[in-house]
Amino acid sequence: MAENEYVPLFETRQVKGRILFRYIAASILLGICFIIMYRIRYFPVGGKAERWTWIGLFLSELWFSFYWLLTTVCRWNAVIRIPFIHRLSQRFGKELPGIDIFVCTADPLLEPPSMVVNTVLSMMAYDYPPEKLSVYLSDDGGSNLTFYAMLEAANFSKTWLPFCKKFKVEPMSPEAYFRTASEPLNVQEWPSVKRLYEEMKMRIETTTKLNQIPEHIYKQHKGFREWNFVTSKRDHQTILQILIDGRDTNAVDIEGNPLPTLVYLAREKRPQYHHHFKAGAMNALLEVHGLDANGGPCFIGTGCFHRREALCGKKYEKNFRFDLKKLNNTKVNERASLLEETCKVLASCTFEHNTTWGKEMGLIYGFPAEDIVTGLSVQCRRWKSMFLDPERDGFLGVAPITLLQLLVQHKRWTEGHLQVFLSKYCPLLYGYKKIPLKLRLAYCAYNLWAANCLATLYYVVVPCLCLLKGITLFPKISSPWVLPFAYVAFSHHAYSLGEFLWCGGTFLGWCNDQRMWLFKRTTSYLFASFETILKLLGYSQLAFVITTKVADEDISKRYDQEMIEFGVTSPMFDILATLAILNLLGSFGAIKKVTMHADKGFKVLDQFGLQILLCLVLVTINLPVYQALFFRMDKGKMPSSVTYKSIIFALLACTLAVY
User: Fold this and answer.
1) Where do the domains of the chain lie?
2) 140 is catalytic
3) Is 323 one of the catalytic residues?
4) Any idea which residues are catalytic in this one (predicted)?
5) 51-80 burial, b if ≥16 CB within 10 A, otherwise e?
6) Residue 291 pLDDT class (50, 70, 90 cuts)
7) Selected catalytic residue, list 100, 139, 140, 292
C-alpha cells in the first residue's frame, strides 16, 4: 500500500433485509388505510355509548398508526458501520488522541463500591496506549467507602492490566471474567490473580458492610483527611485525588509498563446551590481536564465517545482540523498534589455562575434525560455522530432485575424525553435547518414515548368492558373488513419476532419483550405524563431517582429462573393487576356468552371474535401477573393488598360497564 494512500477506518453497508422491511412496511401501511376507511365508513349512528367508544378507539388507532409511521420512517434506510481497528496505527501511527473516560456513581448502597471498581478496572484495561488514557470517577455520594475502593483498584490494576494484555482477557471486568471463565491450562498466573482479586473484593465488601474505614488504612493515604471536613454527602468541599498519575515515570505495573491516569472526584455540594444531578457531575468532570442514515444516531445514555470540543460548546466548521500532534504535545508540568489543589476550584459550586456551562457548554441542565438533550444540542452545532456495533461488545452494563426498578427507571427516562419535547429543545423546532428531518423525527420517536400511554390504556380497557356490555368495536369474523385488522396485527408482530430471532434472541425473550412493552406503556409512561404535567403547572420539582444496582440472593435467584419480581406495593402494580383482572373477567364473560347459549354461540363468535381474541391475548401477556396474584408463594409474589385492591377495582369497573 502506498505510504500516502488514504486508509478508511470503517465501511458503510446497507442493513440486510432492507428490501423485505420496506415491502412489509408498505403492505402494513395499506392495511392501516383500510382500517381507517372502515372506521369512517361504519361509524355507528345508534346509541351515545357506541359512538363515543368508537371515536376513542379510532383516535387510539390513529395514534398507533402515526407512531408506527414515525418509527418506520426512521428505519427506512438503516445502515451499519464495519470498523477496521487495525488501521488506526496505519492512519495515525503513534499520534492517537488522548481519551478521558468518565464513570459516575452516586450512592454506595445502591451502587456497591465493588461493582464500581470492576467498571473502573475494565476501563483501565482498554487496548489503548495507557499514557493517553485517563479514567475519572465522579462520586456524587462523596463516600469515603468509594474512595477506599478506588485505592484498592489502583493497587490491583498493577496486576490486572498486564494479565489482561498478556492473555487477551474477555471480558475485562475481573468479576465477570472469573465468574464465567474456567482456569486455562499452562497459565500459572491465573490462580494468583484470582486470589488477589477475591481478597480485594472481600476487603471492599467488608469495609462497606461495616460502613467504616479501618484505622490503619485511614492513615495510609492523605485523601482520607478530606472527610474530616465533610458535613454530609450534600454538604462538603471538593474532594479531588489523583490516584495514579500517568505522567509519573514511577506509575507502572508489575511488568514495568506505564499505567493510565486514575482520578477520584467528589464535586463540592452545598445546600444553597442546585447541583443539577448527573449532568452537573459530568460537567464537573469536563471542567477538571444503526440510525446513521438519518444524519447520525441519537445520543441516548452511556457507552459513547465525544470530542472534547463538541461537548464544550464549539461549533463545527468545514475548515476544522483535529491537530493530534499539537494536542499530544500539550503537557502539564505541575506535580499531582499541586494539580489537585489547582483543579479543586473547577469543581466548586460557584465556578459555573455567570457562565454558559449547562446551557451551551457541557451537558444541558434542567432535564432528567440530560443525555438526549445534550446529544441534540451537539448535533445542532453541526457535529456528526456515528453508531458502531462491533462483534465484541464495546460496553456492558447492569440493568434492573426487579419489575418495579425497571418501571421506575423507564418512568424517569420517559419523563425526561417528554420534557425535552415540550421545551425549547423540541427537536422539530430546535433542530430546524440544523439537522436532517429524519434525525429530528428519530428524536421524536423517543420524546413521544409517554404519549403512547392513553391510547394503550384505551385499547386494554375499553374493548374488554364493551365486550361485557355487548358493544361491537371490530368487524365480524365473516366480514372481509376483518382482513386488514388481522393482517396488520399478524404481519407487524411476525416481523418483530423474526427480527428479534435474527438478532440472537429467543421466542420466550420476545414474549417477555411484549410484556414489558405493555407494562411500561400502562404504568411508566402514564406516571411520567402526569409528573410532567404537574411540573409544567409548578406543582412538582425536578428529581433524579437512582436505580439500585444490587439485589439480595433470593431476588437474584428468581431472576436467574426468569421469574418476574413483584414483592412490594406500588401504584404501578395496582394498575397492572387491575388491568390483568379486568381482561380475565372479560374473557370469562365472553366464554360464558359462547357456552351458555349454544344456539347463539357461533353468532357471538362471529360478532365479537376480534374483541374476544384481544382479551385472550392480553390474558396471555398477563400470565406472570396472575401467577404473582394467586399462585406464587415466594417473596416475589404480588402483595395481598395489591390483590384485594385490584379485584375490587376490576369488579367495580365491570359492574359500572354492564349497568
Assistant:
1) 96-266
2) yes
3) no
4) 140, 371
5) eebbebbbebbebbbebbeeebbbbeebeb
6) very low
7) 140
